[in-house]
Amino acid sequence: MSEQLKIKLSIANRVYPLTINPSQEEGLRKATKKIEAMIGQFEQNYSVRDKQDVLAMCALQFAAQVEQKSIEKEYVNEEVQEKLEALNDLLQQHI
């Protein structure tokens, strides 16, 4: 079992201490950078006074991206399934 790693991440001028598996560190740090960049964009493009509003908009943006990828993946899976069935039909005709 791997050792736990203690890190601190800063999001919206707050520090969050976390205890994680070392394999999670890179992903968490990248996610933190993306959140900070998105906060900057929202603050620059909109007159937002409250960090809570900015964080809510970030959460919505990331959740929407996850949902969209899920929808696209489902569509691709259906398309692949249809093509595999068509290919299987062709193979069955030649056997």
Percentage of residues in DSSP E strands? 5-15%
Strand order in the sheet with the most strands: 1-2
Proportion of residues in helical segments: 55-70%
Q: State the order of secondary-structure elements, H for helix, E for strand.
A: EEHH
Shape: elongated
- Amino- and carboxy-terminal Cα gap: 52 Å
Structural class, from helix and strand content? alpha+beta
What does this structure look like?
67% of the residues lie in helices and 15% in strands. By secondary structure, the protein is α+β, with helices and mostly antiparallel strands. It has one domain (5-93). Strands 1-2 form a two-stranded antiparallel ribbon. The radius of gyration is 22 Å and the shape is elongated. The model has no long low-confidence stretch (mean pLDDT 91).
